[in-house]
Amino acid sequence: xxxxxxxxxLQKTVLSCDLCRLRQGCHKVVFGEGNPKGGIMLIGExxxxxxxxxxxxxxxxxxxxxxxxxxxxxxxxxxxxxxxNIVKCRPPQNRVPTPEERISCIPYxxxxxxxxxxxxxxxxGATALQGLIDPKARISKARGQWLxxxxxxxxxxxxxxxxxxxxxxxxxxxxxxxxVVAKYxxxxxxxxxxxxx
Length: 197
Ligand code: SF4
Known about the structure:
Elements: H1 3-15, H2 22-25, E1 33-34, E2 40-44, H3 49-54, H4 61-73, E3 81-85, H5 99-116, E4 120-124, H6 126-132, H7 139-142, E5 147-149, E6 152-157, H8 160-165, H9 170-187
Parallel strand pairs: 2-3, 2-4, 4-6
Antiparallel strand pairs: 1-3, 5-6
Bound molecules: iron/sulfur cluster.
The site of iron/sulfur cluster has 14 residues, from helix 2 and helix 5.
């Protein structure tokens, strides 16, 4: 079974999941999307209102901003990255998922990573950082510094929704993504082109 087929199989399971109470309050389970062979995986917190409507990750305002950042890096969703979240169902009023909800859902993310085998992980925001690496870590301290975890290069950075709330975070976030582009050239494609870095 190739990566695409393995993800399709997993998706069937996830779409019918009701392991935690988030499923009762959401419209659509948001599995994830992108190119599983791209080498980069982006991980956010959970679906918001627009994502819940469409069943796709990062399609609201924060997602549009993320697309702009990726474009500036020379990355496209359909080619270079795969995007998923810590929880696949929208928490009510976009609240932070509880530890119980995260624990219920995170095996799906582990399985996605096992199939995709990304070389570079971008953790967007505190929930992704704390959910995967260290429950006590602070995104403001950890961002911008490479971690090595499970054989992958991991870059914690701010969630794009945080940039919408506080535009002062745009500059440091861009510095983080420039490091990702440099790592992508080192690890995946030395010829990678970006007009901005
Ligand atoms: S959030 Fe995850 S564990 Fe909870 S119901 Fe949705 S898919 Fe299942």
